[in-house]
Amino acid sequence: MRKRTSSGLEKTDRLTFSIYLALVAIGWTMVLSVGYEPDIWQRFFSAPIGKQTIWIGISLATFFAVFGIQSRFWMRAAYPIYGLAVSLLIAVLLVGTTIKGSKSWFVLGGVSFQPSELAKFGTALAMAAYLSRFKTKVSVPGDALLALAILGIPMLLILLQPDAGSALVFLAFLLVLYRSGLNPAWYAFGFFTLGALLAGLIWENTPLIASVLLFAGILLLAYQQARRRQALWATGIMGAGGAAIYWVAPQYLNEILLATGVLFGLLALLMYRQNKLRLGLLVALVAGWGIGVAALSQYLFNQALKPHQQDRINVWLHPERCSEQGSLYNLLQSQTAIGSGGLTGKGIFEGTMTKLKHVPEQSTDFIFCTVGEEHGFIGSTIVICLYLLLLIRITILAERQRAAFSRYYAYGIAGILFIHFFINIGMTMGLVPIIGIPLPFLSKGGSSLLGFTIMLAVLLKLDSKRLQLA
Amino acid sequence: MADNSSGRKTYIRLLFGLAALVLWGQAMRLQLLDPSYGKRAEATTIEQITLYPARGNVLDRHGNLLVYNQRMYDLLAVYNRIDPEMDTARFCRFLGISRQTFEENLKKDWTEPRFSKSVPFVFLSKIPDSIYTRFSEVQYQFPGFYAQLRHVRGYPHPHGAHVLGAIREVNQQEIDSFPEYSLGDYIGDGGLEQAYEEHLRGRKGVRFVLKDNLGRETGEFKERKKQHPELGSRLQTSLSLELQAYAESLMQNKIGSIVAIEPATGEVLAMASAPDYDPNELAISRNRAEAYRRLQSDPGKPFFDRSVMAQYPPGSLFKPLLALIGLQLEAFSPEMGVSCSQGYVYNGQLLTGCHAHPYCGNVVTAIQHSCNAYFVTVFRRIVDRHGFRNPAQGLDELYTYLDKFGLNRRLSRDFPSEESGYVPSSSFFDRWYKDERWNSIWIRSLGIGQGELLMTNLQMANAAAMIANRGYYYRPHLVTQLNQSKWFDEEPVEVGIDSVHFEFVIEGMERAVWGGTARMAFVPDIRVCGKTGTAENPHGKDHSIFFGFAPRENPKIAVAVYVENAGFGGTFAAPIASLVMEKWIRLSWKDLGVVPPEQHLDGDIHPSRKWIEKRMREANLLDLP
Q1: With an 8 Å Cβ cutoff, are A179 and B213 in contact?
Q2: Per-residue model confidence as pLDDT tens digits over B529-560
Q3: How far is Cα B226 from Cα B219, in angstroms, rounded to an integer?
Q4: Which of residues 98-137 of A touch B (CB under 8 A)?
Q5: This model's pTM is above 0.80
């Protein structure tokens, strides 16, 4: 009972579209500012800003074109698009062009295209299609594994290019899986593992991490005791004592570890006596896994990572080991540019750091530096708030969908946008390692803008037809 | 499928909110809480470019240029900007360097923090103007190379090296102690360059430019104004280039010095120390270090300025000074006669020898013949004025006068390496003789200028000027004007001797020239007064000494000459000093035009003395043992 209506533009979510337009406008201004010179208007179309303007035009046209496509098309085309993306990812490994060390580009007649952009969109569609199938149950291990495979295959192919940044984006679909009901214990386990890995890399002191983990285990077991209060007090005092000894005389760390281990063993034995062996074993296993990961982290760091990757981790976790002129240079310049903006910024076109090319990739991956430098804390706040608003709005759109496909697709887009947003802005300020992924809608670059526009347009199209879809 | 997990939307939103909060917090930390980023942003993008000033010129008393500025260039390079395809051979040819030098100068340790491939470093320093002019025409073909103008010193005449001093690059210690200096700056080293450093150096200017990350200039930074460099002050000195050159010519192949002062003003007219060197050798150039090392290790010690650094016993030059003090203290009468039989005899013992000369029946003849016996007697009279058992009081009275004469002190700020000489006081002898009671006999050789008493040649010339002025002197100085405004503005120093006493001493000094120890100093038309000295030298031949002034009335010049290992004072020091005096007086006669040409002789030496001039110039005393 489809009505022959117009494309449905009038039912577009106006807020989302406004935020989109605002971000694109801010991006355009920033790209203009980076390359600004008084005579820029005379040679507008040969300057980067001219190209960006053309791309914005193309993107807006595409947006409306997408609205002309029936919403059900995306549901039907989900798997074919995904299949096409995966084949292109395979093809690019064979016949692609290598740019900056990654074989991730097709270059045809002056137009370059990154299949990983298509893969993000295709995976979002395929994931939504798979999870919205009536018989899919992520609580069933087989289905969960298949869902993981949908995101894992393109991720793996992109890692082979190698383009770790783009591959990382596919972790966004874990958010969709979470929303679809995947056991949260897996997420807890994942975060715990990541934490142990980072702890190992940051402190590089396995006995210390082991002591802390074992102590956490002891606290957990003490919590299970009948006389909980006394047990917690006793362990708390012992923990404080151990910490104090370590503070004063760190050379006794091994003795502290031994004592903690013995205590942990005694408690686990007690659990056995109390017939709570399963819990005791679980705690011991988790603690052991954490200790193992932390202990292995250094080995993995040295063996599995290439020097430039090690550099990035070091810039992030151990900036004191890096030379300000060397690997730390980009981050320092970027932080300096943002920091120098102060509260109100230096004003548009007045940024010295970004304009003078002190910041690398200043109009693509590091566009946020220009925001921070020229518009200060106020500008940063506005941009961060716009993204947060967009993300929250998308979750609201997602939740109001009657069709599971639309909902999961929306969460997929939210996840992709979220990872780009957090990692990109985080890396310019030194919160996460420097990973070369663009800031959606703001960064200069046509294919990125076009890709995100299509993703958003499909979402808004689906939303505008939410009452017709089920 | 059924949606059992819709509650999870809250956690997802929480995750989004938390992440945004973390980013927002970090933005707050960078932009609001930590002020260091703003400062660093300025440091990395706005570069200060130092604009080096030219130092002040140095002129002689007639306006002849003694020291001027030469343009020289430092070639800076930014490694990342250099074209790897550049025509290296052509580049090297234009700069006159070898391929090897080119490669060595470009090879820096890039891992060191002070070098960066994006930051300019000095590729080649001290490029002479002539070479740079040639190179500048093709410089556009070699991107990545920039020239920086420096001003270094040039000397049109090879004279006055000791007086003028030199400039060199500041050392780390100076950079640490004085905030106005930074790496690569030049600083005065010795002579006027050092003494007048703060006036000569001018003020550095600065220009603020915006730089991009490759160190490329992208424009002027408008908020900080450019400061133009300020030229250093021009130094007008009292030296006479002509007299200086003449004095140096007389001292060639000798060791020693000449100091000539205008008594009426205290202005130093010439100051020569031998052996010397051409000041251009120490001018900033790529060969300076080598020249410096060579001069440093020269056995003749050319860096040792014998006018102000050497401390000599004055020998018989001390006698006129002693006579003046004795007369002022009424320790003896000018009519006192002392018989001298080959020396000073005490209790039948000959204690201090003397040469053969006629009987000295008064102080005039005693000075004329430089009688040792006479002046040991005068010395003892002065020291024993308060009793033989109380020599300390007498000696310290003598000391007070010598102090007023300018001994035992540095005379002028214009000579940074000047030494003070030494006059022993009673406490010196108390220490020297420990518990013993010393007396005037023991220290009698002070009376004839031997022993512990030491003077610089500048002090001797100053003493001659003081006698010429009959009782006062202006502190000897070199700089008369700074930037055309009067600089030396001091009252004369009165020495506390009544002018009547001078006539005896001056008469004796003129007679020494007429028919005494200094006959070689006789000059037709000019009444020269002088006194020779011969300082005993335990290490070799005696030092030849002379001081004097001319003419006797309205003296125009006072001179002291010290020639090491040249023997008797009359043989070298006296004729050299008289030539300097004659030269100066005839030159000034010529300039003033008050005397007929047969007297001023175009500033030349009298024909009857040409042979002396020739002999003095040609004498080579360096080969003597």
Answers
A1: no
A2: 999 998 888 788 889 999 999 899 999 999 99
A3: 12
A4: 131-137
A5: no
